[in-house]
C-alpha cells in the first residue's frame, strides 16, 4: 500500500541548514535557524539548568508516570511566571496548568480541546504567523482563517488587524502572539493590547495567546502584559506557554497549556477535559524539562542565576538589533531598516525581498528564509560589517 505514497519536499529551513553546512566560504552567516545563539554561535546549556540537572540526578527517586497534567510542582511555578505573582486570576482559582511536550504540544492540546469541546468554532491567526500554526489547527479538524498583521511596506498593520478582528464571527478563537511575534518581530504596544481586549469583549471572541518567548522581548513581566491583561479582564482565555527558549531546553519538550475560566468550578470542568485530550495524545508529558524548571523556580538562588542569564540573552539580542541599524548608516540605509531595532525577540522581518535573499545566499553566503525573516541571534559584532556591506550591495 505504501507504493502510492508521495514524498513531500523537506522543510525549507532544514534545506537551508544543509546548504549552509556545505558552504566553504569562511565568511558565511546563518540567519535561518530558530534557536538562540551566543556570541560564539553556540546554543549552550544555561548554568542554572546545569545546576538543576545535577540536583535532579542526585535526588531523583523514581521514574514513574507524572500524570496527564504533569508535575504539580511545575504548574505551581509556571502559573505565577505567566500570570504574575499574586495575580487575581490565581487568587480566584480560575487558572489550570497542564504540562505539555513543548509549546507545540500545548498548542495541539488547545486545538484538540477546541475541536472536541467547542465544535463549530474556527481559529484566526495573524498573516504571517509561525508556519506550524497553519498545520496544527487543521490537523485537529479546525477551520483556519487569517487576519492581516503586516502591510505592503512590511510594517505592523495594526489598523488592518483590528478592523479584521471586528469582523470575526462571535465566539470564534483568535490566536495572538504574546510577545516576540514569530516571524515578524512586531509586537503590540500596551495601548494596542487594550484596544484588542475591547474588540475581544465586544465580539465575544476567545483568545488563544501563544507565549513562546517570555523574557526574550522586554522582560519576564513586561512580556506578559498582553496575556495578563486578557486573563484579568475576560472570563475565558487559553495560553500556551513554552520554556524552550527562556530556559534553553528546546529538546526537553517543556511547555504548558493554561486554561483560564470564569470561576474555579468551570476551570475544574475544563481541566478534566484537557486531561482526556492529553491522555489521547501521549498519555503523560515527558518529565525532565518540567523538573528542571520547577527545580530552578523553587530555588531563590537558581532563579537569580537564571534571570541573570536570561537578561544577558535578551540584552544581547536588543543590542545587536541597534548595532545592525548602526552598521547600515554608512550606506544611508539606517532609516530603511530602522524597524529592525524596534522589533523584539529572536526574529526580524527585515523587509528583504525573496530575490535579495537569494542574492545574499548566492553572492555572500548569507543564509535566511525567503520571506526575509532573519534570526537576529545570528548577527555578531564580527559579521555585522560584512552583513551591512552585503545588504547595501543587494539594495543597489
Ligand atoms: N509558538 C511559536 C510562535 C514559536 O516560535 C515556537 C517555537 N519555534 C513555538 C510556539 C513552539 O515552541 P516549542 O519548541 O516549545 O514547541
TrEMBL record:
Residues 27-391 form the Aminotransferase class I/classII large domain. Gene3D superfamilies: Aspartate Aminotransferase, domain 1, Type I PLP-dependent aspartate aminotransferase-like (Major domain). GO terms for molecular function: transaminase activity. CDD domains: AAT_like. InterPro entries: Aminotransferase_I/II_large, Asp_trans, PyrdxlP-dep_Trfase, PyrdxlP-dep_Trfase_major, PyrdxlP-dep_Trfase_small. Keywords: Aminotransferase, Pyridoxal phosphate, Transferase. It comes from the Bacteria. Its cofactor is pyridoxal 5'-phosphate. Pfam families: Aminotran_1_2 (PF00155). Belongs to the class-I pyridoxal-phosphate-dependent aminotransferase family. PANTHER family: ASPARTATE AMINOTRANSFERASE, ASPARTATE AMINOTRANSFERASE, MITOCHONDRIAL. Homodimer. This is Aromatic-amino-acid aminotransferase. It comes from Halomonas halophila.
Amino acid at each position: 500500500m505504501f507504493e502510492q505514497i508521495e514524498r513531500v519536499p523537506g522543510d525549507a529551513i532544514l534545506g537551508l541548514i544543509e546548504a549552509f553546512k556545505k558552504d566553504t566560504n569562511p565568511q558565511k552567516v546563518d540567519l535561518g535557524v530558530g534557536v538562540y545563539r551566543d556570541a560564539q554561535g553556540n546554543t549552550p546549556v544555561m548554568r542554572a539548568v546545569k545546576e538543576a540537572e545535577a540536583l535532579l540526578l542526585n535526588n531523583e527517586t523514581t521514574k514513574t508516570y507524572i500524570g496527564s497534567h504533569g508535575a504539580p510542582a511545575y504548574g505551581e511555578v509556571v502559573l505565577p511566571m505567566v500570570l504574575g505573582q499574586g495575580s487575581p486570576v490565581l487568587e480566584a482559582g480560575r487558572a489550570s496548568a497542564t504540562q505539555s511536550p513543548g509549546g507545540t504540544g500545548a498548542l495541539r492540546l488547545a486545538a484538540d480541546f477546541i475541536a472536541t469541546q467547542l465544535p463549530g468554532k474556527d481559529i484566526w491567526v495573524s498573516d504571517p504567523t509561525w508556519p506550524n500554526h497553519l498545520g496544527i489547527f487543521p490537523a485537529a479538524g479546525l477551520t483556519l482563517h487569517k487576519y492581516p498583521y503586516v502591510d505592503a511596506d512590511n510594517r505592523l498593520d495594526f489598523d488592518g488587524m483590528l478592523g479584521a478582528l471586528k469582523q470575526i464571527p462571535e465566539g470564534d478563537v483568535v490566536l495572538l502572539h504574546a510577545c516576540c511575534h514569530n516571524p515578524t518581530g512586531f509586537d503590540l504596544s500596551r495601548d494596542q493590547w487594550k484596544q484588542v481586549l475591547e474588540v475581544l469583549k465586544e465580539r465575544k471572541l476567545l483568545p488563544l495567546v501563544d507565549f513562546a518567548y517570555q523574557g526574550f522581548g522586554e522582560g519576564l513581566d513586561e512580556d506578559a502584559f498582553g496575556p495578563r491583561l486578557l486573563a484579568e479582564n475576560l472570563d475565558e482565555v487559553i495560553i500556551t506557554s513554552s520554556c524552550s527558549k527562556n530556559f534553553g531546553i528546546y529538546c526537553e519538550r517543556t511547555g504548558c497549556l493554561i486554561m483560564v475560566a470564569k470561576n474555579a468550578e468551570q476551570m475544574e470542568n475544563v481541566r478534566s477535559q484537557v486531561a482526556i485530550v492529553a491522555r489521547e495524545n501521549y498519555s503523560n508529558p515527558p518529565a525532565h524539562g518540567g523538573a528542571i524548571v520547577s527545580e530552578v523556580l523553587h530555588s531563590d538562588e537558581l532563579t537569580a542565576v537564571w534571570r541573570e542569564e536570561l537578561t544577558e540573552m535578551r540584552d544581547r539580542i536588543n543590542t545587536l538589533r541597534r548595532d545592525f541599524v548602526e552598521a547600515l548608516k554608512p550606506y544611508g540605509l539606517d532609516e530603511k531598516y530602522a524597524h529592525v531595532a524596534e522589533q523584539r525577540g529572536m526574529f526580524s522581518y527585515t523587509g528583504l525581498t525573496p530575490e535579495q535573499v537569494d542574492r545574499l545566499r548566492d553572492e555572500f553566503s548569507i543564509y535566511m528564509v525567503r520571506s526575509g525573516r532573519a534570526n537576529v541571534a545570528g548577527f555578531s559584532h564580527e559579521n555585522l560589517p560584512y552583513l551591512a556591506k552585503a545588504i547595501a550591495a543587494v539594495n543597489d
